[in-house]
Amino acid sequence: MDRFALYYPYIHVRDDDWLKYAALYWPRMARIRPPGYPLQDSPAARELHAARWLLDLEPPAWAAAEAAEPFLELLHEHGAALRDRFGLDRIETWGLPVAEAGFGNTGGFSAGREEPDEGDPTWLNPRFGYVHAGRISGPLLDSAVDQGLALVGPGRGGTWVAMHPRLATVYMLALAEQIAVANRLHPITDQTLPHAAMSGWTFERLAATLLDGLPATDCAVRPAPEEAFAFMAFATVIPADLRNVPMEKILDVRAEFGAELDGFREFTADQVRQLGAIEDVRDAGLYLEYLHTQVDREVRTRLDDLDDRLRGAGLETARALANVRSVALPPLAALAANAVGVTPALTVPAVVAGCIVGAPLQWRRKRREIAQESPVGYLFQLKRALGPDTLIDKLRRAWPL
Question: Residue 340 above 60 pLDDT?
Answer without folding.
Answer: no
